[in-house]
Design goal:
Helix content is 68%, strand content 2%. The chain is mostly helical. A two-stranded antiparallel ribbon has the order 1-2. Bound molecules: 3-hydroxybutanoyl-coenzyme A. The site of 3-hydroxybutanoyl-coenzyme A (3HC) has 30 residues, from helix 2, helix 4, helix 6 and helix 9.
Length: 311
């Protein structure tokens, strides 16, 4: 027997309306949102590490201030997304435990090292640029708290992308050594940023249902294609090239043909064998342990406050 709420749920989805936390929803809808939203939140938090690596070594006070603001934004995005995920009935502690234990996924992109200052520019331009491509459609996600969180996050992401582009532009207008540094960073971050959009549509087990429920509005390959279409003219302005000899405009398709992507690399990184997976997890565990006293103090304070309120 179907639940009386099911008809309303189907009607809300069909009419492009929103599902609120207290609305009836299929268990599988709830589960796939907890899966995607918690992984999105984990990605934001882990993503602070590669960038933070250059805060103490930024080339100027201005660059340091901008990078600190960006890393703080990522922390805020993570907290925003954890809060939105909690509306589905999972606790913050459960999600933290899933990340700390290594059970949870987070975006593959954050398992690569930041080897030079130019990486901070490449991350802003490519990684935050890919994030914008992926996150703008999520503003219209059928699950309302997720869509609302994305509106705020996308605004800040645009600043992240802009400052990354500007770092690379500055380097490309600099010495030959600076130009080589920028091109080297683009060469290292290009393919991993395309993998952020997920496996090819034919290998994407969650896409069909996510699209039917209007969580995912465009397929992995569609967004990847859109991203490259945005990048090519920007690369021309920068004067950088992409490490894809097969990248060329296809007049018939009115889109760029891409060279083959090494999907075995994505599988390896997702499986924990990327360049920095162990380091990222180790750092996250340390941060959790280092922060235990804050959680205990906050809990003790809340307990005494509650006890006093009872007096
Ligand atoms: N890294 C890690 N895991 C990935 C991945 C990647 N790049 N791409 C896909 N996967 C995982 C999926 O999570 C899924 O595993 P699961 O079922 O255990 O969760 C599996 O590979 C198959 O992929 P699907 O395409 O079937 O999965 P989805 O339909 O969930 O699509 C996605 C993957 C496009 C990443 C989607 O989950 C999504 O849009 N997530 C929200 C956005 C997000 O998480 N972005 C990550 C970067 S965060 C960021 O960019 C912040 C910015 O500040 C830099």
């Amino acid at each position: 027997a179907t639940d009386p709420g099911e008809a309303l749920f189907e009607q809300l989805i069909a009419s492009d309306s929103r599902i609120e936390p207290r609305d009836w929803m299929p268990d599988a809808y709830r589960r796939t949102l907890i899966r995607q939203m918690s992984q999105h939140a984990h990605s934001e938090i882990i993503g602070m590490q590669p960038e933070a690596n250059w805060i103490s070594r930024a080339p100027s006070l201005k660059r340091k201030a901008i990078l600190m603001a960006k890393v703080q934004d990522e922390a805020g995005h993570g907290l925003y997304l954890y809060s939105a995920t909690q509306t589905l009935g999972i606790t913050r502690d459960e999600m933290t435990e899933q990340l700390i234990s290594g059970a949870a996924k987070y975006s593959s992109i954050f398992n690569y090292p930041t080897l030079s200052w130019a990486d901070i520019g490449a991350i802003g331009w490519l990684v935050d640029g890919a994030a914008i491509c992926n996150q703008v459609p999520l503003c219209r996600c059928s699950y309302a708290p997720y869509g609302r969180a994305m509106v705020r996050i996308c605004k800040e992401e645009s600043f992240h992308q802009r400052q990354g582009f500007e770092i690379l532009l500055t380097l490309m207008r600099g010495t030959p050594e600076q130009q080589r540094m920028a091109q080297d960073a683009v060469d290292r971050w290009y393919w991993p940023s395309l993998m952020m959009f997920g496996p090819p549509d034919a290998d994407s087990p969650n896409s069909a249902r996510s699209m039917a429920w209007k969580i995912k509005r465009f397929s992995n390959d569609e967004l990847r294609q859109r991203f490259v279409g945005m990048l090519v003219p920007q690369a021309a302005v920068l004067g950088v090239t992409f490490p894809d000899p097969d990248l060329r405009w296809n007049e018939e398709r009115q889109a760029y043909d891409l060279g083959p992507i090494d999907w075995s690399e994505l599988q390896r990184v997702i499986a924990g064998e990327g360049p920095c997976n162990a380091q990222r997890m180790q750092r996250r565990r340390e941060a959790h342990e280092d922060g235990a006293w804050v959680r205990e103090a906050a809990a003790a304070y809340a307990a005494t406050k509650a006890a006093r309120a009872q007096e």
